[in-house]
Amino acid sequence: MQEIELKKWVSDKLMLLLGYSKPEIVLYVLGLSEQALSPAELAQQLEDVGLSASSETCSFAEEIFKKVPRDKASSGLNLYQIQEREAMILARKQRTHTILEANIDADDSVGDAGNRKCFRKRKIEEQEGDEKGKQVKRQIEERLGDQRESNNVKTLRRISRQEYLKKREQKKLEEMGYDIQDEEYLFEGVKLSEAENQEMRYKKQVYELAKKRSRESDNDMGEYRMPEAYDGEGGVNQKRRFAIAKQNYRDASAGDEKKPFAEQSAWVEQQIKRATLNLKKHKNPTSDEYEFVFEDDVNHFINATTMDCDEFKVESPIEPTLVDEREALPIYTFRDQLLKAVCDHQVLVITGETGSGKTTQIPQYLHEAGYTKRGKIGCTQPRRVAAMSVAARVAQEMGVKLGHEVGYSIRFENCTSEKTVLKYMTDGMLLRELLGEPDLASYSVLMVDEAHERTISTDILFGLVKDIVRFRPDLKLLISSATLDAKKFSDFFDSAPIFEIPGRQYPVEISYTKAPEANYLDAAIVTVLQIHVTQPDGDILVFLTGQEEIETAEEMLNQRMKGLASKIAQLVIFQIYGNLPTEHQAKIFEPAPKGARKVVLATNIAETSLTIDGIKYVIDPGFCKMKTCNPRTEMESLLVTPISKASAMQRAGRAGRTGPGKCFRLYTAYDYHNDMEDNTAPEIQRTNLANVVLTLKTLGISNLMNFELMDPPPVEALLKALELLYALSALNKSGELTKIGRKMAEFPLDPKLSRMIVASDRYKCSGEIITIAAMLSVGYDIFYCPKNKKLLADSAKMNFHRGHVGDHIALLNVYTSWKETNFSTQWCYDNFVQVRSMKRARDIRDQLEGLLERVEIELTPNTSDIEAIKKAITSGFFTHSSRLLKNGSYQTVKHPQTVYIHPTSGLSHEHPKWVIYNELVLTTKEYMRQVTEIKSEWLLEIAPHYYQLKDVEDSGSKLLGHKEGH
């Protein structure tokens, strides 16, 4: 690899890992890689200089170690070995030269013939003596050579014997460990006699002593040894494993000459201390110490109520272990009663306050009770972030590697294996599993967690698993819900018993404002700063409505903190929302630096799905974003709406996890008691049901009207979904699934996108269509527009719309250009494109490409035929067509309604006569998003069953030229 390409590659990787890159940093990293002896050492050095300890860093270290050239002759030698080798070479050179004797210099002083004769005679005698000496020397060397060869053979035999014994010792040690593991596995759950237990303990003790002796023997060698994770007698020690995995190599004391790294290590430590910025320790601030003035002060809060707790536990000054933390959870007291209830009843509704330990502990209790011997234990979560974080926590508590005994399954990521017995997954992934395993035969227990959130997938699961448990009496079904919904779930599952886990660990003090807030976002920011200045230590959780609002709040906090940085302690800000990349989501669980306070800006994802330790203050503005759909017009609107009482209680509960907490509600007590609904409306009653109907039809449920749902959707919405699927040729006249419909069901997409992909086989452009489908699935955050670079960002965006190709083709151009740069991160920055959105689109496209073969569609790229691509898009979205009116607005064809092209569209200033759109959204107006120009005759060609000639004939003259007829 050329040097320039290598530097560019390193720069892109640093952009991805650090968020920035400089030439000096690139050269420094290349220097580290040239000097490193192994990828592991390079990864440790990169972590020491500031890179995060993650799999991405290790992968980067391995790749750059392979790419960077190095001097093979010097590889593997440390400084001490190099010095020894140079000393040996110098000594060998000295032995090849002798000092001149003085009598040689006296030759010139011999003047007479006698002296010359004597001199010649003496020289002859010396030469003869030298020859005899050389002959004797050769004889001695021959004898020494024979003896040396004999000694070498003995030495080799001795060394070979030592190496054999060392390997045999290690092999025997491994065999002993395997024997112990086999016996533990074979006799797990079997009651052994006292003698057998004593023999097992004796074997373990001998095994540990042998390992200890082996370690001590290795340490006596005075050599560098790769660290290994050794577990104690008590079982797997996960914390010790992590500590050993992260430690750097150990140097001996500076006085030990056999350890050449000691002096270097001391020098490095000294340089780090000199380069580290030491901050003064902040004292707990009080309101009297600062001259602190807010521009917009929040109304004084009224201390209204305190959320009671049945048992108050005082925090121990000693840091608790994982076992202590598990036993401190409220559910631990009811472990035996819970297991008995599960044993006695097939369906059980479990209620408990947030933080009681339902999600993490119940699957472990069932595993310990032996339920995993008959099958897996599945636990569904409404959000992928929750599935990942909970699985990681349970794996840590069980002392196993994530992906082995404990795993998770979310879209585009399956972290499970054949060993997995505890599986956390999103409810949507379980629905996909039902397509291939309708009876869930591989599961012995199924737990539907956070059921009170009532997502559309959860509601469908309820109807399906209710039928499954009727003909599978061996399957245990657990429904985990908030207290307010428990009775409703019990009634739906034929009066299933309710198991209550009472009590909260700590009380929460709830306060309301005296009057409603005009600007809840600004009020939330001011409240954060007031808490930071006046309240004791504890992290802050702020609930906001979405990503845009979260980013705005972070910007406002940073601006206000700049003027106060020298007066108050540091405030560390974290974000959490659904589309946030996984590596950023994990950061919210990290503790704040010493002397600083953490504030987490979150959507309602943090209400129930996540538990963040250290939160003592919750700020609740009382709003969330809710998606609703008008079934008649298929118009979706994502509106900011007030939350329900159930959500408000869940939010307040987040403050009582690790100690007494406070919840500041930015609305009045009157609003809470009189205006808020008791529960949030189920998603199935306010969303498009086309995908739901297609899934149910695929599962063989033909009579949708009689399918049991906890809250049936509106009949109009169900009929509109059936009508759309019939128009897309997914259903026939009898309402049965067609061949096209079965192909569409294989794709985890909206039915219109699935139909577009199926139609691409006809137009020979499947490669481009799956790219467009992937980009549309990501959402509308492909481009970003910094406030200070708006003109540049708009110009970069319009480059992809060159030729007025339409928004769909523009998305294809974005992905194609990114792919041509080998998926460069720097290219995304230069073109104001979101890196994480593009990576997600790439993941979706890879999955769709894998599904093409499954539905017998050939992957055929065809970038040159734009008309074929547009026809394939029209095949999926022909129901979303509209035509231009004389006033510049548009009118939908089938259900006439005035709409407009969204301002962010590349065609917003072009006004083509006929367009199709991805969706209608209601904001300030009824807007069409993702618009592409089409020809009216395509509608008759592609959907003759849906459009008639009168719908499209001479529409341009009738509408645009209507003015001339008056």
UniProtKB/TrEMBL annotation:
PROSITE patterns: DEAH_ATP_HELICASE, HELICASE_ATP_BIND_1, HELICASE_CTER
All copies of domain Helicase C-terminal, residue ranges: 520-700
Top EC class for this record: hydrolase
EC number(s) recorded for this UniProt protein: 3.6.4.13
Domain Helicase ATP-binding: 339-502
GO biological process: mRNA processing; RNA splicing
Listed SUPFAM superfamilies: P-loop containing nucleoside triphosphate hydrolases (SSF52540)
Domain of life per record: Eukaryota
Signal peptide feature range: none
Catalyzed chemical reaction(s): ATP + H2O = ADP + phosphate + H(+)
One term under GO cellular component: catalytic step 2 spliceosome
InterPro entries noted in UniProt: AAA_22 (IPR049945), DEAD-box_helicase_OB_fold (IPR011709), DNA/RNA_helicase_DEAH_CS (IPR002464), HA2_WH (IPR048333), Helicase-assoc_dom (IPR007502), Helicase_ATP-bd (IPR014001), Helicase_C-like (IPR001650), P-loop_NTPase (IPR027417)
UniProt region (Disordered), positions on chain: 124-152
CDD domains: SF2_C_RHA
Extent of Basic and acidic residues compositional bias: 124-151
Keywords tagged on the record: ATP-binding, Helicase, Hydrolase, mRNA processing, mRNA splicing, Nucleotide-binding, Spliceosome
MF-aspect GO terms: ATP binding; ATP hydrolysis activity; RNA binding; RNA helicase activity
Annotated Pfam families: AAA_22 (PF13401), HA2_C (PF21010), Helicase_C (PF00271), OB_NTP_bind (PF07717), WHD_HA2 (PF04408)
Family the UniProt entry places it in: Belongs to the DEAD box helicase family. DEAH subfamily. PRP2 sub-subfamily.
Protein name per UniProt: RNA helicase
Organism, scientific name: Camellia sinensis var. sinensis (China tea)
